Structure formats: structure tokens, C-alpha cells
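Loading example: each entry is read as two labelled lines plus one structure line.
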Amino acid sequence: MSVKQQQAREIALEAQGVELGLYAPHQKIYPQAVSGRFRNIKWAILIFTLGIYYFLPFVRWDRGPNAPSQAVLVDLDHHRFYFFFIEIWPQEVYYLTGLLIVAAVALFLMNAVAGRLWCGYLCPQTVWTDLFFAVERLIEGDRRERMKKDGEKWNLETFAQSMLKHWIWLMIAWWTGGAWVLYFADAPTLVYQLATFQGPVTAYIWIAILTFTTYFFAGYMREQVCTYMCPWPRIQAALTDEWALNVTYRYDRGEPRNSLKKAAALREAGQPAGDCVDCNQCFNVCPTGVDIRDGLQIDCIQCGLCIDACDNVMVKVGRPTGLIGYDTDINVKRREAGQPELKTRILRARTIVYAAVIALVGSTMAVALATRNSSGLAVIHDRNPLFVTLQDGGIRNAYTVRLSNKIPETRSFEIRVEGFEPSQVDSAGGKRGPNGWPVLSVDPDQTLEDRVFVTLPRNAVKHGHDDEDKRDIAFVLVDLASGASVRVKDHFMQPDGDKK
Amino acid sequence: MSTASPDHKDVDAHTGTATTGHEWDGIRELNTPLPKWWLNIFYACIVWAVGYWIVYPAIPLATSFTKGVIGYSSRGEVTQELADLQSARAPMVKALAGASFADIEKDPKLLTFARAQGKAAFGDNCAPCHGAGGGGSKAFPNLVDDDWLWGAGSLEDIQQTLTHGIRSADPEARAGNMPAFGDGVLKPVEISLVSDYVRSLSSLPVDKAVDLKAGEKVFAENCAACHGDNGKGNNELGAPNLTDQIWLYGSDKVTIAEGITKGRGGIMPNWGGRLDAGTIKALAVYVRTLGGGR
């Protein structure tokens, strides 16, 4: 029973003076099998998305000897994320922000174009629930058989079927949890470890958690996740407009609904009769128990299965198909008012803005990714002491530097400081390079911390000016092999001008 | 107070809810039982608690407490974690203890480890006097500058100072005092003259009326034995170089005169008994990277 039906029932009961509790028991939904265009699309998407999920960890990608060869890998131990040719360090997690923005706006865009495309076809909850329904149907039969079996006492056959169904569900759930952990370690190695009971404890725990959530959400919670747990239906309802395509019962054509015979009689008599034959097929096939004829509603995930069901019936009764179909509010209202339909306008202000935001964020990310530096430098000025006076009266500042080498090869970097001579710059751990500047060598795909000393000779120390106690300098990290450089601004501190 | 028979349900007219049958001053208590799910969780918690009492430390006794069958204690956990840390570090600690400074400088892994260990040990042991960044303060030497009171700033020199201390109780401690010249050795006038002369050594401004020649004479007779004829000091004796720009106590005349009059002799503890040899080596490496070693 959909939320809308539930509400109608409660209002009716309360009008009769019946006292209702706050909680209504959940009514189990038995969706009927259906075939047609949208069912086929859903099968294709199910196979495609689950195929990606289950097999992607096994895809290999050669990154040379110093990096893992798994195409998609979240390497928590070494703080790296690998995605084919992209390698993300922890400080680059802001890419995730861009990705999330794109994902959110893509959701808005889908909604502006054709309603809950995500909910109906792509959401993991929908895909896995669909798969679980398929298993259930295969073993326990279609809608009527399942309803009948649920109403009966168990016998050997139904018990065996139930056991088999839960076993297969658990196997799917277990594989789902198992595939998840493979994204966090070398997949073939981890599969071997898990199979021989040598895997890390956390892997087993995560498999157990995800096995449970998959089994519970897809086997039991099903449409309740969409109706009660997911925030998107509420947001979606607030974001939609009259131009968005939605799975719509064309009530202007369907009403008044009548049985096939009665409708024929009415037509014979020249009376109005709708195309809806009130066969309830649209309701029977619905995975969320919605009657689409009640209009757009919060628990309708717009999977399109009612379109298939209704079209099949319309073909049988010899009426045109499309009594239920993707349609816009504005056209339903126009047809009702006897006005001609308007062409579906996909290009509207909101779709253009959403698409522009996606393009902007996406291209920003792409440019940032393509032009990002493969080396990095972070400089922290010593806080205590800010500067130190040397024997000869010169002033020295010390800095902690961290060099990042983001490629899987050892590299040597020269540290230059703008405004100073090579001899005035030194490092604690490095050696003098060919140009006189200190040179540090960083291991493949690693960082290196060291201290750098910058000395201002006595004759360059100026006293007596307030603005002389802090000057801007810049560190330049130069890759000796490629000449690529990174520049980082910092300060050089010296005693206050008015103090001696 | 009225009592209703158990089979008779006294229903409140306004709410339609059964009452408990208890009545106080005409007010009857509605019987609204706790939700089933809540009660079940509550009972489950009780069952869990019984198991918890058995497995974990739980009940205080007169002088002790029940230890629980798995013998868990949070202190034990900390001890275990520390032991795990020690054993994880053990190979590096062992390598560090057995390595010479030359070995450490040659091996980047060992050097990195020594610097990290040294940094932690410095924060725990040295920072209270020398400052978190080794910047020192009055009477506590700055370890970041390029001046060394004792030794030439080599790793071995730093190790020696760390292990045996300066003017500490250790028999091998570095010893050498700035005597109190005010105790009848020099007259206040002479102390004033030599203070001005010492300032002039490092080109600090001196009153033009001061007779620097007289000060130089006092210096040659009393100070040059340790600080050298030219005032360059002697880092075997811990006698500071008086010609540079670095002052442990301060460069103003009053502070210099105070030092001459009353003497100086700060103490660096001998860490040999408190820290193991490996930690001292790590500290020496770390202190040198502060900047003093160059």
C-alpha cells in the first residue's frame, strides 16, 4: 500500500471516528513479473552496473614496479587512491568535493529532464532489490503464488523453496560484501587470503556488515528504504517542475475508468469512457506498491514497469499504448483543457544551468588534474626561535620543508631561495648540487622532510627600519632531471629595526 | 486509594486508556506500558550486562575488584601497546645503538629514524630549558646558532656533553667556571673598565670617555688565561668567545659586569644515567640538525 493510499485510508477511518495508532504495520508487496521495453532497459542496466561493481577490482593497470597494478584501488595503508591513470594523495581529496558536486547536480539534471531516473534505474537499492525480486520469483513463483504461499502454513516444498531463496540471497549479499573489500587491497591476493582464512580481520568484518545490509535492505526493507529512509524523494519533489518528464498516468485519456465490457457499452451509447480498464496491472507490477493512477507520489520510484504492464494490456484490448508513459504535467493539463500539446522542452533555464555547473566543475577538475604538479613543496618557518643571530652577526632563519615526489621514480630536487646566494642556503640532510644549491633525493611516490637554513650575512642586515624585520622570500623546488619547478612563498625574519 | 480487581479493566473516559486502578486524591494513573521494542532492548541489555560482568572487570571488592575471565584492563592494554611499539621499533633501536655516527650519517633510513627519535626525546627532556625549537634563553644556550661553548659541535662533542653533562655530578662532566672576580680579586672600577673593553671586542658601542687601554690591561691579567689574548674564548674550557655577537646572559654592560663580579656556571645535567646510549645518539643527531652543526 502506497503512502497515498495509506493516508486516504486513515482519513476515511478517522472520519468514521476510528481511533488509529501512530504506526501502521508494513504491508508486504508482491510485484508481478512484467516484460517490455522498460523491463529490458532495467535488465541491461542491472547487468551493466553489477558487472562493474563485482568485476572492476580485478581489472589490472600497469603503473611500473613501484606502484600497485590494480586499476581502481583505495590503498588506505599507504594513503593513496588509484583510478586507472589517476593517483590521488590524501591532500588532494578535494577532487572528491568536485566529484560530489558533479554527482549532486547530475542528480538534479536527471530530475529536471525525466524525474527519478536515478531512483528507477540506477540506485543500488533499486538494482539489488530488483535482483532479489528476480531470485524470489524464480524460486517461489510469481505474485499470486507468493501471496498464496505466504498465507499458508509451511509444507516441505515451500520450506525448501524459502531456504533456497534465502541461501541465494545470502550468497549474493556475501559476494556484494566480498567485492567491496576488494577495492581496498590487491584483489587476487585478498581473494586468496580470504579463501584460506588468512585475510585481515577488518576485511571479514566489512564483508559481514555488507552481507547483512545487502540481505536486509534488498530482502526485507526494500521499498521502505526509498519511502522512509532516503531523503531524495523529498528533495526531488521540491526540485521538480511542470516541464519535467515523469512516469504519468494520462488520466485525461484513462478516465472515467471502467471494465472492458462496460466501457464498450458506454462508447456504444455515445457516453464518455476512458481507456483504463481498471485491470490493476500497473499496481500489481509495482515494486513499491504504488497505484500510478493516484498521480505523482513520494514512494513512486518511476521505474517504468507500470508503463510496460499497461502497454501489454492496451495491446490486448486493442487500444493505443501509452496510457501510462513519460509525460509532463503541463501537457496533461493542456490536453485536459482541450489545448494542443507542447513539444517537450528539454532545454530550459534549469537544465541549462545544471548542465553548465556540471561542465564548469567537470572541466575545472579535468584541467586541475591535467596540469597538477608531480612534485610538491610545503615550507614551515621555525616558530621558536624565529631567527637566530650568528657569531658574525649574520641572521639565520630555519625552515622545515616537506618535499613530495608524486611519481613512482626516485627524483633529485634542488632547493633554491629567491633573493639569496646558493652559499647562503643549506639543508640538514642534503648535499650540494651542481649549481651550488642544496639537493635532496626523494624516494618514489614518497615525501621527505628536512630542515633548510637561510642566512643573511651581517652586511646585508639592515637595522633602523621598522619594515625591515620581515621580508618576503620564495622557495623554488626544481626537479634536476626535468627542470619542472614549484614555488612557495614564505618570510625571512630578523630582529626588530628599533632594537639592537 | 481504591483497588480494582485484576480482571476488571478500569478505563479512563477521556483517553480511552486503561488505568492501573491506583487512585490518589481522585487522580488515577493511566496504564500506558512501555513499548515492546524498548522493553526487549532493555532486557537484552540486562543479559548483555551479566555477560559483561563475567568477562570484564566489574565489581569492586574490599581491597580489589573482580578481574573478569579474560583479564582485561585498560592499563594492561596501554602496556601491551607500548610493548608492541617497542618491539616494532626494536630492530631500528638496536641498529642505532650499535651504529657509529659515521654509520648513521651514511644510512638514510637510520638517519631519518635517529632524527625522529631525537625530536621526541628532545621534546621530553631538553625543551624545558633549551626551548621547543632549541632557541634557548638567558643562561640556557641557543642550540640553533653556530656557536658552541663546549667542543666544536661535532656529533661526538654533543654526545659527550649529553652523556656527562656540564658541571654536573658526573666525574667526566665538562668542568670550568667563570670565577667571581668581585670576591676581592678586582675592584668595582676595574670590573667596569673590563666590561667596557669586552663590549668593544664585539664592536658594541662604548662610552667615548672610557679608557679602553686600562680595560685591556685588566683583561690581559685576569681574563686572557681562559678567554684568550684576543678574547676568542676556548671551547675546551667552556670559555665563551667574547668577540662574536652571541651572548648567553646578555650583552649590556650591567649584565657583563654582573657576570664578572659574581661569576657564572650554569649546569647541564648528565643524561647518561637517565637515557640509554641509543637515545643520546639520536639526540645528538637531532640537535645537530637544529642548525648548530654548521
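Chain B is about 45% helix and 5% strand.
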